[in-house]
Amino acid sequence: MSERDRLGPPPVEPLSEIAWHRVEKSLFATLDCDASAPVVRAAAPTWWRWAAGGGLALAAAAALVAIVVTRDDGAATARDGGAATWRPDAPSRVATLDAPTEVQFGDAHITVEANSALTLHGDADAGVLILLERGAATFEVAPRAGRPPFVLQAGEVSVRVVGTRFTVSRSGDAASVDVTEGHVEVVAQGHRVQVHAGESWSSGGDREAAAGGLVAPPGGIAAALLSDESDDDEGGDVTQAESVQGAPGDAGGTAVTAPRPRPRASRDDKASFERAAALEASDPRAALAAYRDLARGRGAWAANALYAAGRLAAELDDRKTATRLLGDYLRRYPTGANAADARALLRTLEPR
Amino acid sequence: MPVTVRALDVRRAAADRELAARCAEGDRAATRELFLAHRERVHRTLFRILGSNRDMEDLVQEVFLEVFRGIARFRGDSTLATWCATIATRTAWAYIERRKPAMTPLELVPEPPAEQPHADRTLLAREAARRLYGAMDRLPAPLRVAFALAAIEGLPLAEVAAMTRSSLVATKTRVWRARREIERRAAKDELLRGYLHELGGAPGEEAAP
Lengths: 352, 209
What we know:
- The complex is a heterodimer.
- Chain A is α+β, with helices and mostly antiparallel strands.
- Chain A is 33% helix and 25% strand.
- Chain A is built from ten helices and 15 strands.
- In chain A, strand 9 and strand 10 form a beta hairpin.
- Chain A is globular and about 50 Å long.
- Chain B is built from nine helices and no strands.
- Chain B is elongated and about 55 Å long.
């Protein structure tokens, strides 16, 4: 072969910046958990990302993973005298039509669903404010420890992120928050609720129960939102709906009630998932059956199980089953934690 | 000049030791600095050994978890780059041994536009690489790792031996056996045979160790 005809060494497929972001985020989340939770070393490496997510939920205090969700009468939340000053100049707007799109904004990775729109303000140095105008978006945000704040606003609901993965959907002024990784804190004018991975919070539920509502505490909701207080040193064990102080008449607040999380995943689901994962090496068919059984339920672990079933079927070279399961996953969880992986896997299963 | 090279090495070694020490203390900025500085080398090492692989992101994470969990043991006997690559090599080796690799044959590399210069040669290279990794899929881990690092990546045999914690003789034997095995499989494949030749000669052209 002459020099002119030399082919050179095999080309190295570069990882995309989005892929590197995923690697970095998952890596650092796992490192954050290392001090307080055993790290699961998977026989099949594709599922330890979820184990890391589960570890995050269990070790949330150490990982300082929390979101504060609240109503806010103001428009864009500003914080003076603190770490950040919003710079709403030159915002960027993203609007989608029939297809979702992905956006990298600072250290945040955002999947904007179809028929959605949001506006991005600020930058990585000053802090980020995102206004969700309509539709839904999924956010993967690196832990904020030592970084400027990251706030999302959807109608009357504001979400302050410390570091996690979550989806926000907006319909009119109502909004819902689904947490897929990490441990979040919801605060609404005098009430604080812990929400874990696999649980959801919806402002619609508040309105239904607003008749007997409490009133905002002194300082108003913005102070609660922007407070750096953590539940770690205030409440002891986390409860699902923990009231905090608030007296009628204080600050002339508007009546609201506590947001109520709607648990969709249980520790049993997590245990079932881990049992199925442990079966993969010794009896993959049994593991597949266990995943499929778990996938019939609801919540984050059902989603994880459905993807795991598809992935395992692919590894067992059962392309037909794998294609069906991964397709089901994408239909049921189009913005799920493994949606990108499912799409990539499906591409490898396409007939050549 | 040898003196200059030595001086640079000393500086780099000191910088590596300092960065490792900061990582060991839990300095997150240092951890990120190390990750950003060495991620390409880690990915490249994994790719050279495994080829295109759908578990690549997980494997990169696995390598860096190993790096950061063991960073306190880094003494500066090698560079951090080599240290990371060595862990990547071990990770790839373990991956090959614990499961039958399900490789994705380079389909993610974008097709070159027809008008792009050397488009034909690029396509030919992709095809040759696909066949090469297909043949390597059947090799045992020690042979595959040694061949990938020495013949494809072009690392010196001594460095490959250090990275795989093997003797120089064992490494040379593995490369030779791997090449002979691939050559056998390429008996009727002119493209692969020619590609093997380009990557460092066929078994018949060098003495067995």
